[in-house]
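## tool: complex_structure
## caller: assistant
## args:
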Amino acid sequence: MSSAETAAASVLRRDWRKRREIVTPEGVPLTVELAEFSERAVALVLDLLICIGVTVAIVLLFIYLAAHGLSGIILFAVLNLVAFFLRVLYFIHFELSGRGATPGKRVAGIRVIDRRGGPLTASAVIARNLTRELEIFLPLGMLISASSATSGWGNLLVLGWLLCFLVLMFFNRDRMRAGDLIAGTLVIAMPRQRLLGDLVETRARFVFSDNQLTAYGKRELQVLEDLLRRPDDAETRELLRDVRDRIVRKISWADPLPPAETAAFLRDFYTAQRAFLEREQLFGRPRADKFEAARKREE
Amino acid sequence: MSIEADIGLEVADVSAGRPAIVLKSAEFRRTREPSWQELERLVDTAERRGVRMLSPYELNRLPQLYRSALSSLSVARAIALDRHLLLYLENLALRAYLAIYSPRTGVVEAGGQFLRAFPAAVRQARWHVLIAFLSLLVGTAAGFWLTVQDESWFATLVPGGLAGGRGAASTRQSLLDGEIFAPWPGWAVSIGIVANFLFSHNTLVGIFAFCLGLAAGVPTILLIAYQGVILGAFIALHYDRGLTVDFLGWIAIHGVTEITAIVLCGAAGLVIAQKMLFPDRYSRVDSLAMHGRRAAEIAVGAVLMLFVAAILEGGFRQLVASTPGRFAIAAASAIGWLAYIQLVRPAGETR
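## result:
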């Protein structure tokens, strides 16, 4: 297969993210893209680093202020308590603050939403963040504090516990951890899409007949659209020439076509093809792709 | 290619006399585009600096523009073949939706909401609370009965870590001096008890009872009942030495709070179990999402109660070295919790 086919595949592969649908209170379904595990891991590590930093600072202050008669055990206990309240408040504060994301999540470009499209409630945020305690921190804390005291079996049990929750996250469709499951939340990616110019020409130099335009359908149109939107470089020009040749063969374009006109020809073809498909769609004859006619015949 | 380049090209070639093309979708885009751009600007600001940074006029515009973007999206889905435009509108509508419907509560406000939601959640789950409490009672009775008959059961029923050297060999005097009226251990140990509440036996039991609700609830009931067994065994041990009342005072000062919390954790686990086993007309995951929040509210509230219990245990138990005093605090806390759970309503809810 030629490079045009691979390019088409790579162009449309923007669908690599898993998608879900939520319905807004206005009743319009919107598509959301699930966050990747890697993004969530990065966000968690960043948030934890921030929390640990602040906790250490507070505890250092504590030691500085009351440097007398504090044994190591007490210090450790206080550290535990400060860290607990700090991280719980940190996560809840930022996820409730209107952006639905902690600083780590914002860096990773992800946020928390309600799974069914309603507003994110305080109790959902509290629930999902306190569940994190028993998913991660509690077993970790037990591993750290109990590693010397208890037997290997206890540690094994704790590891199994950690693993259980990890597995749960990897093996459900919506990548929910236990906290998301209980709180009814979803973590989604927040890509930002800019509006680019319309590719439609208002005046065409090349004119195509309806017969020529029946060769393709909506899918091919969109592949062409993505090709035309690629940044202009040597590879793109190569691709465009390739695609032009294929189109010329397919629709039996007879007129001469100098290489310099490639882009103009393809844009005109795009415009004419879109106008044609729009009209057909309006008349109740949508064409999904170039096999539409063959499918019709089979039926 | 940018829009400017297109326009330039077009102006240059008008004289060439090309046929004019009017696409419905291009017209649609041309007329709606300014309002999309305006919405995008507002959403950008809201995302970067928060909705509070918008002026009153902009705040007024935001929902209007959002709704018109939604309608644009619906139209585009029906007619547009332009994939980029669809993706853009999807993204814009989603961002605007999130900017409009996200929570804007502070931690303090959220805490306040939670403190009002917790009693309501407990009241809704009263049957679950009752079942959890009954299993605790049954366990206590069983533990008491077994240990009263034969004290060697104590060592079998109570894990070594909790027994703390107490057992069939303990004398009345050793229990009085070493346990019930032991001297106050000082700040260090007290703070340690409070600070380590999250890793204490009771908190772990509570959290496990809640989580095991995901395993259909039977382990939850067994775990709660087993806590009763341990309690019953302790009561029996002291009963045999004529210390029942003193022991009850010693345990009740924080036990009222602590045992209630554990029962509530169990009840939360049972709520989860029930909604998973009998999802009604929803899917199990949806049913869990709808009711899991309530269960989590109960469990979170219970963990906070355990924190209060840790303060009572670490701070007050050995300081108040008289049984009537301890019972007074226990009774006060019982009345306090009961009143809180019965009387506090969520904001806006009337009786």
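## assistant note: Residues 31 and 142 of chain B are 78 Å apart (CA to CA). Chain B has two domains: 22-101, 110-343. Handing back to user.
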